[in-house]
Write a structure and sequence with these properties.
The protein is an alpha+beta fold. It has helices at residues 2-23, 37-42, 52-58, 70-87; strands at residues 27-32, 46-49, 91-97, 100-107. Helices cover 46% and strands 22% of the residues. A four-stranded mixed beta sheet has the order 2-1-3-4. The protein is globular and about 45 Å long. The N and C termini lie far apart (56 Å).
C-alpha cells in the first residue's frame, strides 16, 4: 500500500509539472481522439514541444543531423508540424488503435493571409 501512495504522489507531481510547462507555452498536451469522452480522458496525452529549439537544446548531441540519425530528424519534423498547427490555434489531437496510429488530427480554421 505504501508503494501505491508514492506512485500516486509521483503522478500528481508529474501532472503538476506538465501543467506548469503548458502554462508557459513550452509544451502542449494532445488529447486522444475518440467519440466517447471517457475514452479520451483515460488515454495518456501525447506531448509536443512547442519550440523545436528545446528539442535540440536537450538532445545530448545537439541539433539532429539527418545524415546520421534519420529517426531523430523525422521525430523533429513531426513535432514541428504538430507545434505549428497548435500555435496557429488548431485543436490538435492524435488517434491510436494498435497497431495503427495517426499523429495529428486538426480541427479549426486556419488563419490565411494574416
Amino acid at each position: 500500500m505504501r508503494d501505491s501512495f508514492r506512485t500516486a504522489g509521483a503522478l500528481e507531481t508529474v501532472a503538476h509539472y506538465l501543467a506548469l510547462l503548458q502554462d508557459v507555452y513550452l509544451i502542449a498536451s494532445l488529447e486522444k481522439y475518440a467519440a466517447q469522452t471517457h475514452r479520451r480522458r483515460s488515454a495518456p496525452p501525447k506531448l509536443v514541444t512547442l519550440n523545436n529549439g528545446l528539442l535540440s537544446a536537450m538532445h545530448p548531441d545537439g541539433a539532429p543531423d539527418r545524415s546520421t540519425n534519420q529517426r531523430v530528424s523525422v521525430n523533429g519534423l513531426e513535432n514541428a508540424c504538430l507545434a505549428f498547427a497548435f500555435n496557429q490555434g488548431q485543436q490538435v489531437m492524435y488517434w491510436r488503435e494498435e497497431p495503427l496510429e495517426v499523429d495529428g488530427l486538426f480541427e479549426g480554421s486556419w488563419k490565411l493571409g494574416s
